[in-house]
Write a structure and sequence with these properties.
With 342 residues, the protein is of the alpha/beta class. The protein has a domain at 80-198 and 236-266 and 304-321: Rossmann fold. Helices cover 45% and strands 17% of the residues. The protein is built from 13 helices and 13 strands. The strands form four sheets. The chain has a seven-stranded parallel sheet, sandwiched between helices. Strands 6-13 form a two-stranded parallel sheet. Helix 1 packs across helix 9, helix 8 runs parallel beside helix 10 and helix 8 crosses helix 13. 47% of the residues are buried. The mean pLDDT is 96. The structure holds 2-amino-3-ketobutyric acid. Residues 82-83, 126-128, 156, 195, 203, 206-208 line the site of 2-amino-3-ketobutyric acid.
Length: 342
C-alpha cells in the first residue's frame, strides 16, 4: 500500500517495555514508530517516534483513524494492567488486557489483508500465567516448562494465558469457516517474561516490583520496606535482555519457531539476595521486610524459575546479563547517573 507510510505500532508506550523498546529501535535508526498509551508518553520518547498518540486500546475509532494514514506490518502490544493493580479492578483489567488485545489482534488481521503479508504481533506474556498450589510444590518443581502448572491465581495471569491462546487462534484458525479463507495473516509471537528490572523506569502495579523498588529506593537514599518475605524466589531479567528477547524473537525465521509462546529468563535470586547485593552497592541502604500476606501469596504461586530451553533451541536465546553483570554493568551505573542528574 504505497500511499500509507509503514510504521511499527507500539502500545503501552509510556510503560517500562514501551519506553525501552522505542529507545532501542530509535538508536538503531528505526523511528517509524507510532506510540500509543492512555498515560502521557514522556516527551523524549515522543521525540523518537513518527507519532505519539494519547489513546485507549479499547477505542476502536482510534484504530480506524490510524489505519487510514498508516500501514502497520508489525505490532508490539505492551499495554496491560499488571498483576497487583488488576486485583483491585479485575473486570476493568479483563477489558484492557483481553478485549484490548483482541482489538489489536483484529487490527493485525485486517492489516495483513490490506498488506497481503502476515503482520508480526509480538506479545509479552508473563511468569504470572503459572500457578503453583503451595511452597512445597514450588520448591519441588523448580524451573517450570511452558506447559506446566498453567493455573494462574491472578486476573492478570488468567488474561495473559488466554491472550496467548487468542494469539494462536488469530494466527492459525481465525475465521476458519469463512468463504474468503483469509487466514494465517497474524504472525503471533509471545514471550513469557519473568520480573523485569530497569535502571531508568519503575514498574507500576506489578507484584514482582519489589526488586526494582528496592534498588531505586537505595539509589535515591530512601528507606524501603519490602512487601515479600526474604526467602521469596522468582525469576528476573534486566531490561536490556528483555528488549533483546523481543527483537530476537521478532527476527527469528518463522520456520524455526515450533511454539507460539516461549519462556525467557536470566537469574532468580531470593529477595534477601537482592537486598544483599543492593547493600553491597549502596552501603547506606535501609531495607526491611514487612510481607503483605496477599501480595506474598501471589509471588508464592509463581515458580522459582522458568525453563527457557525452547527459546534457546529455536532462536538461540541467551541472556547477556547474569545477576552480577546486571548490577555491576547495567543497573548500578545507570541508576546512579539517573538520580544524580535529577
Ligand atoms: C507483575 O508483577 O505483574 C509483572 C509480571 C511478573 O508480569 N511484573
Amino acid at each position: 500500500m504505497g500511499m500509507r507510510k509503514e510504521v511499527i505500532l507500539i502500545t503501552g508506550a509510556a510503560g517500562e517495555l514501551g519506553q525501552a523498546l522505542i529507545n532501542q529501535l530509535a538508536d538503531e535508526g528505526r523511528s517509524n514508530i507510532v506510540a500509543l498509551d492512555v498515560k502521557p508518553i514522556p516527551i523524549p520518547i515522543q521525540e523518537r517516534c513518527e507519532l505519539a498518540i494519547p489513546g485507549d486500546i479499547l477505542d476502536e475509532r482510534l484504530f480506524s483513524r490510524l489505519i487510514s494514514e498508516y500501514a502497520i506490518p508489525a505490532i508490539y502490544h505492551f499495554a496491560a494492567l499488571l498483576s497487583t493493580r488488576a486485583e483491585f479492578t479485575p473486570e476493568a483489567a479483563h477489558r484492557v488486557n483481553v478485549d484490548g488485545t483482541m482489538n489489536l489482534l483484529k487490527l493485525a488481521a485486517d492489516q495483513s489483508g490490506w498488506l497481503g503479508e502476515p503482520v508480526k504481533f509480538v506479545f509479552p506474556s508473563s511468569v504470572a500465567v503459572f500457578g503453583l498450589p503451595d511452597l512445597a510444590t514450588k520448591a519441588k518443581e523448580g524451573a517450570l516448562k511452558e506447559y506446566q502448572w498453567l493455573e494462574p491465581t491472578t486476573m492478570y495471569g488468567c488474561n495473559k494465558l488466554y491472550c496467548e491462546q487468542l494469539g494462536r487462534y488469530y494466527a492459525h484458525n481465525y475465521r476458519q469457516l469463512a468463504a474468503d479463507q483469509h487466514r494465517g495473516g497474524v504472525d503471533f509471537r509471545s514471550l513469557r517474561f519473568p520480573g523485569l528490572i530497569s535502571a531508568f523506569t519503575l514498574p507500576t502495579g506489578g507484584t514482582s516490583d519489589y526488586a526494582s523498588e528496592m534498588i531505586h529506593a537505595a539509589a535515591k537514599g530512601e528507606p524501603y520496606r519490602c512487601f515479600v518475605r526474604p526467602d521469596t524466589r522468582i525469576p528476573f531479567m534486566a531490561m536490556p535482555d528483555a528488549i533483546k528477547a523481543l527483537l530476537d524473537l521478532s527476527a527469528a525465521p518463522a520456520e524455526n519457531l515450533k511454539s507460539y509462546v516461549y519462556s525467557v529468563t536470566a537469574f532468580n535470586p531470593s529477595a534477601e539476595e537482592i537486598a544483599g547485593i543492593v547493600r553491597r552497592h549502596f552501603p547506606d541502604a535501609e531495607i526491611t521486610f514487612q510481607p503483605d500476606e496477599r501480595r506474598q501469596a501471589i509471588v508464592d504461586s509463581w515458580p522459582e524459575d522458568q525453563d527457557d530451553t525452547w527459546a534457546r533451541r529455536d532462536w538461540n536465546w541467551q541472556p547477556a546479563y547474569d545477576l552480577d553483570r546486571a548490577f555491576d554493568e547495567y543497573l548500578v551505573p545507570n541508576i546512579k547517573a539517573h538520580y544524580h542528574r535529577e
